[in-house]
Predict the 3D structure of the following.
Amino acid sequence: MGREHTVVLIVLAILGSSPFIAGLTAQDSRPPAQSGDAARGQTGKADSAPIAHMFFRDIASEVGVTTMPNSRTDRRYVLETMGGGGIALFDCDNDGKLDIAVVNDSTIEQYRKGGDLMITLYHQDGNSSAIHFTDITKASGLTTRGWGMAIAVGDYDNDGLPDLYVTGYGHNVLYHNLGNGKFENVTKKAGLERFAEGLSCTAGDYDNDGFTDLAVVLRDRILLLHNEKDGTFKDVTQQAGLATGKPTSKQVVAKLPGAPLVGPRVRLPRSPRSGGAYRPPARRGRRARV
């Protein structure tokens, strides 16, 4: 297996699970000011050049994209602070237009009843002068409910159609693209039903065999799932050298790249299904320097 490709695939998955959001800023492209003789030697052309600015305007509701995350101020569980947060821009039916898949979170109350649709699919049916999207989620067969976390797009069976892998609290789901905007849940058929509670994921061919593989970030470890070329996936985490040892059932030892130990042990939050509210763990042990 190509270890360099594996590392790239895993890094992409980890970056997808980060809670930090990078802001978009327009920066002055002019060179920094100089002093002394170097400054006097400049012609002044840089100062006279126009400064380019980039502006964005929210047009979601205008074009039919109406999905809103669930947010509340009286959050009691760590799950509520994580929420859903992924989107995918891809051409679901190969009509030459980008469509949008939005990952949906849920609420504790709704999750106990089965959860919300894990993703919403918006099909682009407008044109360049009048952009518009239509919610085709249910008509597409994307009906699995739960608490969505992230999404990855890749053509795992090389039929020319982009497939979807959605991670979430409780379970993950693999959707096979049937064409014409239709999808089928093939999670069990692909051997992926035993992998659950993925925080983030990414798709890519880590070993250059021509088939799309999956990397999934769980709460306590990373999974590398190899495409077996027959519609199924195999867990090759240990063979790829990515296994870090099996943690205890309710404890995880946190580690950072380059740091031998970052204490303390972190007790995982209780499941909302058991009615237990999240309480921050007591600080014990030595903190790592970052």
The two ends are 32 Å apart (CA to CA). The first strand starts at residue 87 and ends at 90. The helical segments are 3-16, 36-40, 45-48, 60-63, 78-82, 108-111, 137-140.
